[in-house]
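STRUCTURE REQUEST FORM
Protein name: EGF-like domain-containing protein
Source organism: Tieghemostelium lacteum
Requested output: structure tokens
Priority: standard
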Amino acid sequence: MNRHNNISYKPSILIVLFLFLTINLNLFVNGQTLPSFVDSMSIPKITMDNTGACLAIFDLLVTSDYQGVSNYSSGVIYPPKPISSKSLVSIQLNLPIGAILSFNLLDTLSNPYNLEFPQYKCYIVTQLQVTNPYTTIYSYNNKLFKSYQMKPAIRYNSINLGFPVIQSSTNSPLSLDTLAMPYDNVVILNMQYKYPFNVASSNNQVELKSTINFNALTTLFSTDLENSVGQPSFEVGSYNDYPGVKMFSLAVNNMVTKSRVIAYVSEEDGPLQFYPVLGNNQTVIMIGHYLGIEESSPQGPFNVNIVSMGSVAPPLLSITYSLPAKTTKPDPGSAQLTVVNTYSLSFGTITSTIVNQGLSLLTTPFFTQFNPMNSFPYGALSGKYTSINYMINLPLSKFAKSGFLNAKLGTITLVKPNPNYSVDTTAPQLYDFEFIPLEDPTTILVRTRVSDDISGVKVIIAGTTKILDVGDLVDGDSLNGVYEKIFNFMAYRIATQNQAIIVFDNAVNGLSIFPNTMFTWPQVFFDLASINIFYFDKQNSDISVNGTWNALYFSYNNPDITRKFGFKLISTYEIALQFSDDVGTMDTRPYDIASWDESVELFKVDFYIPPRLFSGNLDYIFQVDGEDYDTSTFSTLVGPNATLTVYSSNADEMPPIVNNITTSGDLIILENDIVFFVFNITEDYNDIESINITIASELDPVGYRNEFKFGTNTKQVSVSVNFTILSSVCVPQTFYIKELSTRDSSGHYANSNIHIQSIIPNMYTPAIFNPLYKFSDYLTSQLVRVTCSSPSTDTLGPTIMDFKLSTNELDVSSMNRSVTVTFEVVDLSGISTRHVPIIYLETYQASYVSAQFPAKLVRPISNISLARYSTDISVPYMFGYPFGIGVSVYGLYDLALNLQGLPFGLLQQSNYNAIIKTVNTYNGPIIESSYPFNANGGTFAIYGRKFGIDPTQVIVSIVDNYVTRNYTQSAFEQFSGIYIRFPIPKPVAQYFEVRVIVNSTVSNTYLVGTYTPPTLPPTSTPVNPPKCPGSPSECSGNGNCIVNEQKASCQCTKPWVGDDCSYKIFIVPQPSVDPNEPNSTIDFTPPATNSQEPSEEVIFYTSLVSILSIREIQIDQTVLHDYTFKEWMYKDISTNQSKIYQYLTNITHEVYKSNTLVNVSIEWFDDYTNISFADQIIEMTPSSLKYRIELSPYQFEKSTNTMDIRFLVSLSSNGSDESCSLQKQGDVFENDFVSLELDNHSFYGRFIKRAVVDGRNRLISNTIESLSQENSESSAIVSIHIPNFEDSAILDPDFSILINHDPITSDTDGSFCKSKENSGLSKTKIAGIVIGCVAFAVITSATTAYIIYKKKQQKNLIKKLNLKMNALDK
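Status: completed
Returned output:
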């Protein structure tokens, strides 16, 4: 057994703790080993101190036989910190210049053990030097608003860093802001534009120097800012201030391309967000956002200097602004706390009255929640929104440190005796903590073993991140157990230096450990200086009219080709906000993933540049090891290749804006009347893509929401929100514009109501453009006040009539964790179904608002006074264990806008069962997903639960083509309780079954499909100019060879088509329409003569197109969800000019239960027709089919997840044994194709590498997998890979029948002919592609003659297809 790869916990096969993190000295010179009392040692961090000497910082994990450290020059040895039976020792040693890291470890008998590390040396550097190959810092159109504008990388001739760097000259337009983290031989400097700066510098140099005593270093860097002196003078045009939205606008004339106009706030000593939105080289419109955070009292005035930054910084305009006092809402004046211990789940109840959402804080022993009313409707028991009767139930542990429950609501401290609990005052114990790389250096398994004496472990926190809880338990229990979880560390890190690892138990006792370097990941950061290739496919692009696709290629010394990197073009301020520090975490940000491309032997990432961005260098992020870098970082590492430059004759980064508002005006309701808001919205050069508007009132925060979508050539629209006020349930209220958002076709987004929820507000969080900025006072001026002649006197919300749970006990460790929540409510004023109630699953282990699900209305309301809801919920694995789950409902409204909530404790006290007992009794293994498997064989991995910790007790059983192979410990490359990896041979079938057997208990059966990777040329093949396919000449002499970016494609002359122009279009009648599902079956016979008309021969061909399924794919390419289609709604939407057939269905999310509309339209073309899709002109040929697939919003479980749509394509005949088949695939003009050929006929499918995602053009990819091939039958599966989307995705593949100029014979390379078969070769087996627990059967070889008549033939084919599908589904 390979001890470095096996990661089980059995002592006899225990791996070295901290794989790649610890230093085992038998790896070093002189054959030294760690003494037996040292369990592990972290990698030393070597830095310089301010004397020029070095510091070595590292940690030891030692046993009780450790006494101390000796034989070192100077330093600090910190007292051991107990970690279960071991201790953590943090060490900081001083290394004189020229010394290596060397010291003695002493055991309890004072025996010394000398350790020397010659590779860790404090080098003598007589003169520190900058080794950057480039010294120009390239400016760029910065959208990621921070206190600094550039962060160049500085390389030195020493790997020992840590010394401070200061600016040695003021004669520069840039100044040093702060020093970022040093990495090996690279330091990242944070730099900002400086003001005032009035001394011209010929080279725009930035001078830096180190301050270490033994060396004075001067570093010169230049910027590419152009000198505005001598150029046409900048002229300030119109200036407008919009204080109500904290914005201003300014027109600037005669902009110089490589200069910058910035706004500098003197009082804050930093820039404010100020950026161009519309213009050209004559005039640019700039938008600014006030800098600062509102406080309890007004602030200002702030003085702003708007400056032209070039080689000098002359002021253009000086303005001032002030910030109003922050609107504060008083906390409640009273509150109550009670404790209930009479049910299986104990709980505390907090009640109060909240006026105008005034609640700043809720603190309990388990969590702290700032501004709890931001989670409305949670906690709203009754009343109206302006005065809420607040009630929440806090699930309690059965254990506590004391006999009192403490809480704080606003400024009120609440204390209540907590009877009937078990005392636990002892903190948990942590035994070890591991980081174990899996398939690549960014996929890491985190494992720890912890114990607790009484209450059990609740959660493990590293740094500031909760990383493990009871759901990650793989062995033992919460009293003594092993925890494992897999993390993607591409954009994530666990940093514990100067922070703690904390383990809490269920009585809130905490163990805190403060290591220096031991429990951090990564320990060795990626070396930016090792990048030796870095370039963009299109470094300069004209995007004046259309956007363009681009790609970044890069590599580094000795690349790990399994590694992943993040990249993102920051083309809009919405993207900038998503990547700011105050929004989410790095692992949830929507990076585009750069991975190794075998075809070019480089890392590659594709991305789209939308049209009409401002000319200049674009802003982008390159992400590795949880750190973001930009254009300026790579400027000094790779030079001009770091720049991504565009040109636009007329730039448009302005989102659609509101130019006029009309309202119904104030209303007095005598009888039913209509409130309306009408908005006139315009766009300049881009098109309006979408508008969302919400009108709310002080009583109705949900309000009335309208969503509008628009097509191309939409520059101006008038949209409205209108609704009826019923006189019978009229309540006085004032309606206002709660939110208005717009988006244009280039993705520029505006929103009037973006609020970043941050405990520590950051003034440098990017602001989002407000589309209502021209109506600065719209919150007070654009109102509709409604008064009632007969106001409703109803003050009571809906009343519950029934409440049921489908189970009172749930095994949260099993595969089936479904619960159905059903309830009925009644209200004489009528139920407001516009307000969707929310179901909350509450547990002691969760925070303030735990798992929540919208309730589903199931009974159509003939009587508006009664409503019934029934909601299926999939409970997360181990959620609520061991104390139970409370099921609460909040957010019920009646038509008089009275609220009603149903917390689980109140339901329980009302004789409804609202508590689910949770158990952990299922002991069998569970397979949840697998790594995509190569059809050529290789390494295979499965992910799941409860694989155990002893690999000797585990068997992985694979059934491939009815042959079973068992894999045991000796085959496992890596093993853990949730992950097993091992090699398997090339599979025979297109799918295989996997089971895991642990101690004779068998898991679920998991079906795995295979994929075939593209065939790549040998790496030694010389690079020659690309040539087009064709024989005897390129494009078969029937077209022109077009070469673009080292790719050659044929542009065929009509009527020739195909990848090599050797095919002709075959005219066939329009196929019959299948009214049940969007399958297209084309039956045809070959021509009897040279004409292209069908003959009367008895040979029939049948082609088939079918949409198989939709899948949600995780970042590791495993399948998370797989959706098949049960029923379609069909409609003929043809016109005189087109033949189009529409099919509609829904897929329901397996977790969230939300529905996504799948809209498929099939269009038949009789003639050549040009269509436009995703900024691309596509020529449709006669007798061709085009599919268009449109998806409505889908709720991805993670922003890094993607989607696959899977097609089946097939061609078959009743030909003789002399028939031959061939499958071809490739790309023509960047579009993928698959060609299934029989004899001299081909079924040709074109899959466009473009999609319209959320209204914008996106690059996508396709995977084509051979499914089956016989002499008279051929089929393939095509997977279209769609990026993560929010609103919509549109795809556009097409298909046609062709005649091959050269029929397929046994001499054709890659052909399959009956005459080629070896004796004994079996007939085609059932071929399928299956992910998860759902199987698809598709097509078998033609073993009987096809029926001559086409209708019977089609019926027979579909019947066979359905029979095979049903057989596999069983």
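Reviewer notes: The longest helix spans residues 1350-1369. The mean pLDDT is 81.
Form closed.
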